[in-house]
Amino acid sequence: MAAEPAEVQLQVRFVTKQEQYAVSDSPYAIQSNVQSSDLNTLVNALLKETKPSLQKSVEFDFLVCGELLCTTIAEHLQEKGVSTEDTLEIEYLERFPAPTPQECLMHDDWVSAVHTHGNWILSGSYDNSIHIWNTKGQHKLAIPGHTSPVKGVSWVSFNGDQAVFASGSHDQSAMLWVWNVTRNSVDCVVTCRGHDKGVECLAVAVDGTRFATGSWDNSICIWSTSLTDEDNVPAKKRSKPEQGNSREPMSTLKGHREAVSAVQWIDYNTILSSSWDHLLKLWDCELGGIKQEIAGNKAFFDADWSPLNNSMITASADRHVRLYDPRSTESIVKTTFTSHTGWVQSVRWSKTRDTLFLSAGYDGQVKLWETRSPRTPLYDLTGHEDKVLCCDWSNPSLLISGSCDNTVRIFKAKHAMESM
Amino acid sequence: MPPYKTGLLKRKIPDESKEVEVNNSRSDEDEVLIRGELDAENDSTDSEHDDDNAASDTERDEILFHDSADSLLSDDEANESLAESSDLTDSEEDDESGDEESSHEEDGESNSDEDKAEEEKEAKPKTKAESEDSGAESGTGPTLSGSSDGSKKTKEKAINKKEFKQKPIKKKEFKPKPTKTKAVQKTTDSIDALANKIKETNVTIQPVQEKDEYESGDTSDEEERVNTAGAVPSWWYDEYEHVGYDVEGRRIARPPRRDRIDEFLRKCEDPEFWRTVRDPGTGQDIILSKQDLELIARIREGRVPNPEHDEYQPWVEWFSREVLATPLRAFPEHKRSFLPSREEQRHVSRIVHALKMGWMKTRKQIAEERKKSKEQKFYDLWGSSAAAGEGEGVRGLQRHIPAPRRPPPGHAESYNPPPEYLLDAKEMKEWNKLAQTPWKRKYTFLPTRHGSLREVAAYERFTRERFLRCLDLYLAPRAIKMRLTINPEDLVPKLPSPRDLQPFPTTEVLKFTGHTDLVRSIDFDPSGQYVVSGSDDGTVKVWETSSGRCLRTLALGCAVTRVAWTPAAGLSLLAAAAGRRLLLLNPGAGVGAHRVAARTDDLLAEPPPARDVVMDERTAACVQWETPDAAQWARGVRLSVTHFKPLLHLSWHARGDYLAATVEEAGARGVLVHQLSRRRSQLPFRRAPGRLQCAAFHPHRPLLFVATQRAVRVYDLVKQELVRKLLAGAQWISALALHPAGDNLLVASYDRKCMWFDLELSSKPYQTLRLHGGAVRAVAFHSRYPLFASAGDDQYIVVSHGMVYNDLLQNPLLVPLKQLRAPEPRGELCVLDVRFHPAQPWLLAAAADHTLRLYA
């Protein structure tokens, strides 16, 4: 490649998939040592010419050779091994705006699980309690009930006043709760007992009728979320008075050899699970069998699947986040995202953007990633002072993370809705 | 001319000549006889004539030979010289050529004798007078030559010559001439004489035959006149009156010298002068005969000297193509006689090959070798004796060690050094000050300035210094220093790269904080979900592995030296050694499975029937099983065993029913085996094996490993006997860990070593690992991965690869993989215990800085 990248002139053409920001297709000659900020001004200048209607200048990100431009173009091309002779096609897209820190929800103990739905934030803590917050940071309710640290919480449904959520704990049980919003009262409807060891993770199906729990007893149980248990509980069991509102699993998926660290619903019938035995498994819920198995070389701590791009990201016992494609039969890691300095404990896809995801690690950092930029995250969401145990991006405008410093931090993503 | 040709020639001679020959042969014989008579009588001319005639005939053959020989020798010369002589005819033939000339002339003369003889046969009357004269002269010839004083005019006629070197041949030729003339005389004499002769010959056939060869050798009468001086230069006789000696020793008188006038007079007077030559041997004048002249003439013309020789005689085809009735050779030449012989070729090639290979030597080579072997051999005085003994030749030449080089002279040593090298006043002062210790001076000499090199004085110490240098070179032994060139890489054993041996813990990922004093001991629960740790602050803490969250704290009141989670999956129980008490704790419902915890509680709540709890007195004196009260139960204590001495070490049996406890300084009662189900204890040893450190059960066989201060003893619990004694070779064993397969043992010692024992190999350490800079306090094996770790007082935890093969032939492979940075030491201590996660390649270390560290 060029010995002195500063000298080289490049022929570039700007393309975009966002129609409102399209500029003319003609190539431009630029210096190769320009950075994305320079390109940004250039594109903005071009935009001003072509579309005078746009008043504000827009921040853009630039994709060169399928990867986000973070350094100068010359260095980027050198890394990629691409010739500077040809006309380069630079795709630009509106930059995801920097999330702004919002509230800090103080807990009494480590926050191990967090989930949002609309304006409501559900968090589980190591002090065996579940908390309900609104996005403004108001603490609505503290719910004791579990006898061990709560490891998974998830909203199930909102029906006007009545909100249903599920929680799983190390006390080997999962609970279904009904929260009356207006009265701000909560009621444990069903206690799901079936695991021999602590419940590590919990996920509610897309249609909200079932939820799955993964446990330290190496199994995954699928439970019904129906609040009345007449239809699926055998009469014999129901007759037992002390069982009360306890429930047995609809099905149990056994196959992992170590603790199940994460479960995710892919569709109404398929569950993705990750385990400490270095395996990712796709289960068929109805048949109870394994559809697919992907082997990693480290214990998996978390996995998430995105319906938008049909791929999954995993957090394992190292500082990398890996992107897997479940359609590929070989367990080929498509991309490895490396920026964390400690174990990554939790990963979550964006619900609206197929290239963005969130990761939380033991280094106290929450990072917002763009899949096309494997080395540099888009943003570091700092603020936590200790290990971050969980994160959530269920509400596309809220980036929430729970940590060992007893806090849940909320970051707000501007324009997150309107960008799509 | 080859002999057979002569034969042929003879044969070709016409019949009349044959007759003559016959006559001749007879006359020859006669001659000899007569000669004998003559000698006796010194008279009888008749017989003499015959004799002469015959002699002339016999002579013919001889002459033929001589002629050829002579002509071969010096044909051209003869021609030239003859020409000369004919010109000169007089005197001045002092030189040798003249002598030769004359001889040739004589030859020619003698040859021409034959012709003469034949001619004379045809025309006898004509030559009669002549021959008479000559005959008279020649007849007297012999007598004359016999005595010097009797020399007559023939001698006077002879040309004056200084030298007379003559050969007998010349004499021969010289002699016949007169005989021939006589023969001519004789023929003229009478026929009756001839007839007589024939008679005589007939009569004396026999003796003639006998005498024939004798006669050929006997030339006595001829030799009478021969100069016997021999082949000596004639000038030897220059001073004398004689020129030599005849056969009888008489002197041959020098013929009188003639001056030019005499020569001239003779020339004028003597008609024969032109053909008179002087014999240098005898100094006599010889008149060449007509035959001689003819012979000379023929030689000059380059023709065959013998006029009778027919050059054009018809060719006799002895070998012709015609088949003869009696062929000369009965067989034709074979074809192979025209081809090179194959046999010979083979032979030659064999020789050539042998020469090439050196099996055979040419004569030249053999001669050279012989010559070389004959050459004198000298002892190599200057060769080194040692080298000669080894037979490797002169050492100095083989591996010459050059003398150490002296530094080249610098500027100061110049005859005209730059001014800065010359000593100034201050330096000069110093120089003078060091006069007593000259070796301390800056230079060994005083730099001096000279106008030119010519002015430099002779160096007075030159000889001495050269001598000292020679002494140095001679006396100082020099040797080639053999430098070992060892690559550092070669010294390092070939081990697999750590990259290939992944996974293994590499970085610290979690820090478990909560203890307030140093953490003595840690253990994982069988699933790896929890960690238990015992600390000097008197608490046992249960942690969540993945997050480092302390889930439960159990205060025990006194420092916890050892904690161990039960390996039984169905129990939620951990043993903790706190002071003298061994406590069995249930970490509670929050930790692990409810059901398991409940079952454990059920099991431990009710004591077993009393008949099972039978302990002998000795054991009963040592331990006391106690059921905790409610308060303690609430704190998690399910059972407590109080020992008579503080506990040192604890270890569970793999099934979780037995527990081996080691007690401090207890001698024979140092190791106790507790059985939980029966709540009783055993003292396995009657005698103290030594200072006990720790005890551990074999993972699946009924063996107990007991580490004493110096050795590890292996006891069979069923047979109750000592099976093995493993000598660690260490001063003080600190810890011991058993490979999960049970055949390998890792022993740590306070003297910074780790010993790996292969129980199937020997009772000595298979390998001693010196990986630490301080005392090693803990070792641990991974239950699934081929990993082991050791840690101690230095700041490193060493993770190593320890592969054990099922194949009995392959020894364990030990590769140190990683030095993990341990936390800061507190006082002397740094890391007190290490444990591997049961499933993941993670390592947990109990540190002296009140924390636990998880490495992954």
UniProtKB/TrEMBL annotation, chain A:
Q: Where are the WD repeats?
A: 104-143, 192-224, 253-284, 337-379, 381-420
The record places domain NLE at 10-77
Q: Which domain of life is it from?
A: Eukaryota
For molecular function, the Gene Ontology terms on record are:
ribonucleoprotein complex binding
Per UniProt, which keywords does this protein have?
Answer: Nucleus, Repeat, Ribosome biogenesis, rRNA processing, WD repeat
Q: What does the UniProt entry say about where the protein is found?
A: Nucleus, Nucleolus; Nucleus, Nucleoplasm
Region (Disordered) spans which residues? 231-253
SUPFAM superfamilies recorded for this chain?
Answer: WD40 repeat-like
Q: Name one GO biological process term.
A: maturation of LSU-rRNA from tricistronic rRNA transcript (SSU-rRNA, 5.8S rRNA, LSU-rRNA)
**Which Gene Ontology cellular component terms are annotated?**
nucleolus; nucleoplasm; preribosome, large subunit precursor
One Pfam assignment: NLE
The family note in this entry says: Belongs to the WD repeat WDR12/YTM1 family.
Q: Which HAMAP family match?
A: WDR12
Q: What does this protein do?
A: Required for maturation of ribosomal RNAs and formation of the large ribosomal subunit.
Per its record, how is this protein called by name? Ribosome biogenesis protein WDR12 homolog
Automatic annotation (TrEMBL), chain B:
Polar residues bias: where? 140-149
WD repeat ranges, renumbered to this chain:
512-553
Q: Which GO terms describe its molecular function?
A: ribonucleoprotein complex binding
The record's Gene Ontology cellular component field reads: nucleoplasm; PeBoW complex; preribosome, large subunit precursor
Give the region (Disordered) as residue ranges. 1-188, 201-226, 390-419
Q: Which Pfam families match?
A: BOP1NT (PF08145), WD40 (PF00400)
The places in or outside the cell where this protein is found are: Nucleus, Nucleolus; Nucleus, Nucleoplasm
Start and end residues of each BOP1 N-terminal domain:
237-505
Q: What spans are recorded as compositionally biased (Basic residues)?
A: 167-180
Question: InterPro entries from the xrefs?
Answer: BOP1/Erb1, BOP1_N_dom, WD40/YVTN_repeat-like_dom_sf, WD40_repeat_CS, WD40_repeat_dom_sf, WD40_rpt
Superkingdom of this entry's organism? Eukaryota
Q: Keywords in alphabetical order, please.
A: Nucleus, Repeat, Ribosome biogenesis, rRNA processing, WD repeat
Which family is it part of? Belongs to the WD repeat BOP1/ERB1 family.
Q: What is this protein called?
A: Ribosome biogenesis protein BOP1 homolog
